[in-house]
């Protein structure tokens, strides 16, 4: 795409539009400055509103449902979690030439772990594992299914296309790893809460300590394996065991999580290698770490 967008159906969003939406629908905040927040996010755009708030708007039709999902479920999850999560302050409706719902949240201070990586990941590995343990224990009554809550085998077509097309991957090793993933036993217990998108850009740190988890657009229930992707998208070989112990993950779930990291890595690098090099680099790292991990087993 020559227009600099990541998706063919991506809509136009800018500071002027966000300012109009806020002024009309939340006039109490209408005089506050609106500032674009650059990120590698693919589904939503984010703007800072004043000093203490953020506005989040869908980029594409497929991500529209994320706004209502976050507004409905974040207040339910937040009191039970050991790290900060976004707090919805108001949900906007289509208007001013923007056809999707949107939302205002409390601003969370911190640097995301892609832009400002932590030098020592040991504390982050434990803190993130404990976050997942707490998340899984929350009541799931009426909860929606997560985007990544089902079997990783549903990504088979995209994974094979990526292996075929990418010149940056060891095709033989990736194919063998994927075939091994497809043979793994599946989750048979009751579905549990998942974040669904634990990438470095969705984790914030303050004073060299993990402080918040953001972007709950994929939140829902299902197989907890996908949330262990952080072991390969973020953590090092030396800190994965700390994360696994804190997350209380069994062997089969850990193996499926590694398969999720492989699937995410291959398909995301394939799709975003031109339009979102930041995310593509995270994806490439995930594949490299998975293949190295399997080689060392």
Short description:
With 297 residues, the protein is of the alpha+beta class. The chain contains nine helices and ten strands.
Q: How many β-strand stretches?
A: 10
The amount of beta strand, in percent, is 5-15%
End-to-end CA span: 41 Å
Give the fraction of residues assigned to helices.
25-40%
Show unreliable segments: none
Biggest beta-sheet profile: 5 strands, antiparallel
Main structural class:
alpha+beta
Count of alpha and pi helical runs? 9
What would you say this structure looks like, in words?
This protein is an alpha+beta fold and 297 residues long. The protein is built from 9 helices and 10 strands. The chain has helices spanning 15-25, 65-77, 122-136, 156-165, 171-182, 230-233, 240-247, 251-272, 277-296; strands spanning 34-36, 44-49, 53-58, 88-92, 102-106, 111-112, 192-194, 203-206, 209-213, 220-222. The chain has a 5-stranded antiparallel sheet with strand order 1-2-3-5-4, with helices on both faces. Strands 6-8-9 form a 3-stranded antiparallel sheet. Strand 1 and strand 2 form a beta hairpin.
